[in-house]
Specification:
five-stranded mixed sheet; about 80 residues; Nuclear Transport Factor 2, Chain: A; 2 helices; alpha+beta
């Protein structure tokens, strides 16, 4: 897990909490870069409530990421991990 997680305000507009995001980074089902040009990464994981979340983030430096999007996972991303 990363030492520091920073958040954009946009990360919370779908009622996903900071605690939900932290849990999602543990044992992710899918975590990979989806746009190398913008260093955009997608993480998919069940949260503590049984919801499948999609989280988009990028790296600020070697120890810090910025989460800028978090919501219930859309079908287009679910197919990446066969959920």
């Amino acid at each position: 897990m990363f030492v520091n997680i920073k958040y954009s305000r946009s990360a919370f507009k779908h009622d996903i909490t900071e605690a939900d995001v932290h849990r999602a980074f543990i044992n992710a089902v899918f975590d990979d870069i989806i746009d190398e040009a913008s260093d955009k990464h997608l993480l998919i994981r069940f949260d503590g409530k049984g919801r499948i979340l999609e989280i988009l983030y990028n790296f600020i430096d070697d120890e810090t990421i910025r989460v800028f999007h978090a919501m219930r996972c859309r079908n287009e991303w679910r197919k990446l991990c066969r959920i």
